[in-house]
Design brief:
- The structure holds 2 protein chains of 2 kinds.
- Chain A has 10 helices and 13 strands.
- Chain A is an alpha/beta fold.
- In chain A, strand 12 and strand 13 form a beta hairpin.
- Chain A is elongated.
- By secondary structure, chain B is α+β, with helices and mostly antiparallel strands.
- In chain B, the strands form 7 sheets. A 5-stranded antiparallel β-sheet of chain B has the order 3-2-1-18-19. In chain B, strands 6-9-10 form a 3-stranded antiparallel β-sheet, with helices on one face. In chain B, strands 15-16-17 form a 3-stranded antiparallel β-sheet.
- The chains are: A alpha/beta, B alpha+beta.
- At the A-B interface, helix 1, helix 2, helix 3 and strand 5 of A face strand 1, helix 1, helix 2, helix 4 and helix 6 of B.
Chain lengths: 320, 530
Amino acid sequence: MANVLWLQGGACSGNTMSFLNAEEPTVVELITDFGLNILWHPTTGLQIGDQVQDLLRDIIAGKVQMDILVYEGSLIQGPNNTGSMNFFADRPMMEWIKELSQVAGYVVAIGDCATWGGIPAVPPNPSESTGLQFHKKQKGGFLGADYVSKGGLPVINIPGCPAHPDWITQILVAIAVGRIGDVLIDDFHRPKTFFTDFVQNGCTRVVNFAQKVDGQFGQKGKGCLFYEVGCRGPLTRASCNNILWNRQSSKTRANHPCLGCTEPGFPHHDLKKGSVFKTMKYMGVFPKEVPEGTNKLAYYLEAGFQKAMPTNHPVQEFSK
Amino acid sequence: MSVKELNISPVGRVEGDLDVKVYIDNGKVTRAHTQAAMFRGFEKIMAGKDPQSGLIVTPRICGICGGSHLYCASSALDTAWSTHLTPNALLLRAIGQATETLQSIPRWYYAIFATDLANKKYADKPLYKEVVKRWSAYVGETFQKGLTASALPVQIYALFGGQWPHSSYMVPGGVMCAPTLKDITRSHAILAQFKNDWLEPIWLGCSIERYMEIESWDDMLAWVEENESQKNSDLGLLIRAGLEFGLDKFGQGVGKFLATGTYLHKDLYNNPTIEGRNNALIQSSGFFDGENYHEFDHLKVSEHVKHSWYDNQSDGLHPWDEPLPTPAQSQTLHDTNFDSQYSWAKSPRYDGHAAEAGPLARCVMNANPANKDHQIQDPLFGDIIKKMGPSVFTRVLARVHEAPRIYKFIEQWLSEIDLDGEFYTKPVEKDGKGFGATEAARGALAHWIEVKDGVIKNYQVMAPTTWNVGPQDGNDVPGPIEEALLGTTIEDPLDPVEVGIVARSFDSCLVCTVHAHDANSGVELSQFKL
């Protein structure tokens, strides 16, 4: 049994929509089989308005126990740090979060907006958005670098735009069944169990990454999307290609370059000219970013060698 | 009798929180104001950025209609860059749009709307018990089945786009994917499961084909009574309970409808232009003024900001001419002066008129006698509007009416994909202006872009919710939801459930609460859940 409060700030509801796609457990099973008691949720909550205000005040006053605070959306602080660009129940949302975070057992940030500010925080950041405990790659965010919840953990970050439903449900279940002690978090506060492997692990195009065979939009076969259309699979930690999305596919399996949405820089390069669905290069040849953990020069030499004298046949066959 | 003020905060969340204030005199709403309570400034974020930024940024405006934003963003660049679109590209975009909308029908109906009918206000109605048994949140008999089935259509979206929500697979010049046979066969199988799990046995109680024979309101009523299976289906119950509960008696609105249309035909939009768009649509666009149909012309769309929290902008500008937003200081619902600025939403107008966007607007366009052979021709809602007029009931009926047709479309379009054909034609990037539009599940959605010096100079998004929840315009004429609330009878001022039901019928809100205030004393009278 765990009491969950779910709030949305500068949000698109995408993480909620993703959550509603969950299976094993479904949202309903989460409640009936795993004893999650959703105190309130903007889409499915039954008590709202003043009843919600009363509930929030009771939680803050310690009359109602809140084991998990789930937050979706950016923390809107504008204009001029007043938060009045995001009123919720007749008060700036940021004021609610400040007080609720002090009494929460655990705080879970869902999606890029809540974790690091996401798209709303892209310069010029018109709403003065930030994440709960990070602003982009910088630790701190709204609650500050030193924040820990009553359970003794900092904000648990489940990034992604949106987060995969499994990442959300599994962390909620881990807390509910008392296994939170087994959840290890990395430097960006992400549970390592989901965010250790790279998106490239499990990518069906990986053989052509090694062979340096380019992929393009609309192209049949399995060309690698890293070289021309800006895929960030080798730079992005997430289990997308292992657990798949909507039970069927993943971006790279559908010939869609990985956007790197589980890493704190998303959208990377702040959408500057030439960065969207294009691999940014030096002198039109050398990719500006190389796979995580590789030395640039070594990578260029190796890649150049493979391009000029492939050690194996490129895998380009395909069936319609 | 004193006028009572009701502050409703929040009414819901689409692109942010929606609050409503109504004034009640002698049991009727005499004045209403809608307030969108959240600002993120997406258009400002895109200025000066890569011209394709909209493909990544705009789906994140709304996680519910993200695929629709993508459809618009790619189309806007298609017109700006004069791309070429293959039949496969157009089919795969239409399938994406259709699967998102199909998903939204049961999800919206069960999770958002139907629980309203389980409100105790209706406890004395004969069908109330059955409604509660089926549609109560979480525990209702068909609630979970409908909600679970809603995840199926977007599995098809994921096969072509990688994931739902938030894919960017539609790009200027076509689509990223190049599906193979197994993607097509898998899609057919998922679609059939959606039909077998929910659409036919639970929702319709008959075959899709039987339902699609309905052409008039009389046909519809006869269909309900035709047999027990149809009568007791969820749709049969909605029609019977909707009429019994009197949902057809309130929430009329402005009586003018606007649809930007969608589903560009695979053979009619291979060289995209703004001028050629209307003719290429399968679901037709148009403006219906209550009497006559008018051809849609995006140049007749303008936005007003007199009552919106934006400075440095004049009223009535076409989106291409609008400046990027300059946010003004906002207030809480209680502190707002409604004679001045009071919402983050702007007020879109068509040819100067407030107009309702949404499934009802689409269904009205489907009845336009001028629709061409390749366009939907469905007289049903022309007849319903004539006989019953717009109301909460007709709006909800339109929202769910589309499921069988969309199902058939997806099936057809899957079968038309040519696996030997091309999916993408690389465009030449250039400066220029573009316009892209679609019908999101909840109504007309349009994007306007201007690319200059290789970056975005201006980007304007007009969402269906903007059309519907927008505040008063420059002439203080109310927006569609504000208008729809006027005259609504509030049976119990201590529990004015009707206000939220009207707002919800526009699909503008997920959660509603009303705080009732006595206008004279300011004392809070009640609060309630809708």
